[in-house]
């Protein structure tokens, strides 16, 4: 059966990319699904604004959204929409111009040192130590988060199995393939008991097999964690996400589950057949075959 959620999100992003007027995209109640009841609030972004020096337009403009524990929320938007800037503010790389965010109840403006003890981050580009092995990377980040040596070693063994890299444990990072390096970067975000995990395009530039392995890792480790994921792959957002948030020009455009977006913006299925054929009878047979 065809799945039309990726088509819907593609359509939304295309509309936003073509939006060139001075007015900003607006979020109304019909574009935002009510927040799920009974879930623990992991991240709360409250009227967040970020304006870079020399720029007339805010990179993030009065953004407010909640992320919940036990869920994966996908951040979608065209290039320059404000996804990476928002993630950078949440991890403390940039200070907000105004507004704030709360991570597990703590304010990013005053409690960033405490927040980082339970925060995992996978940036858009791999940041690895060339001469450290796979095992040493996982062990180092686990110890850095406060695990005991015994707990860290157990976590290393479990993570190597989940990554499918037990035979690469003694391999230096510089000798790994691009897909393996990306899997290692994602794994390091989850180790050490991270309660909030932020992943900036975690599957960019990887082969389909590695991409599937990363998906399995995210689905296995999302329990008890608040996971924020940015991606340009619509099928990925549909498969992994409990909720999808689409932003444009630093503002939230719509937010909800894939099913909500389907009901709100879906216009049915599209099937386009293009074939040059001289005999019209053959064309009719071909179309009947597709109808079946």
How does this structure look, described?
One of its GO terms (cellular component) is membrane. This is ABC transporter domain-containing protein. It comes from Oryzias latipes (Japanese rice fish). GO terms for molecular function: ABC-type transporter activity; ATP binding; ATP hydrolysis activity. By secondary structure, the chain is of the alpha/beta class. It has two domains: 189 residues, Rossmann fold (3-Layer(aba) Sandwich), CATH 3.40.50.300; 56 residues. The protein is 36% helix and 20% strand. It has ten helices and ten strands. The strands form two sheets. A six-stranded mixed sheet has the order 6-7-8-3-9-10, sandwiched between helices. It has a four-stranded antiparallel sheet with strand order 2-1-4-5. Helix 1 crosses helix 9 and helix 6 runs parallel beside helix 7.
Order of helices and strands: HEEEHEEHEHHHEHEHEEHH
- Secondary structure class reads alpha/beta
> Ends: how far apart?
12 Å
- By DSSP (H or I, 4+ residues per run), the number of helices equals 10
- Principal-axes geometry comes out as globular
Strand order of the largest sheet: 6-7-8-3-9-10
CATH superfamily of the largest domain: P-loop containing nucleotide triphosphate hydrolases
Tally of discrete structural domains: 2
Provide the β-strand percentage band. 15-25%
Low-confidence stretches: 1-5, 17-22, 283-292
What is the makeup of the main sheet?
A: 6 strands, mixed
**Total number of strands:** 10
- Proportion of residues in helical segments: 25-40%
Give me the CATH fold name of the largest domain: Rossmann fold
What is the C-alpha radius of gyration, as a whole number of Å? 21 Å
CATH class of the largest domain: Alpha Beta
